[in-house]
């Protein structure tokens, strides 16, 4: 049976940074690495909202990216 273990977590916040010549949104991303494995979704949301309040551009998405190690 395969097992998995968390290797790394990253918090990513996507911002809309205007429109291009085709009228599509330009997306800028900020990433914060080394997120502790025990951090809950509510804690991440609260941190992301605090960081977003310091930005000029509106937030499009708040994403947690986990990298897992899978072994047999």
From TrEMBL:
InterPro entries (UniProt xref): DUF1659
Matches recorded under Pfam families: DUF1659
Entry superkingdom: Bacteria
Record-annotated DUF1659 domain positions: 3-71
Designated name of the protein: DUF1659 domain-containing protein
Organism, scientific name: Peribacillus saganii
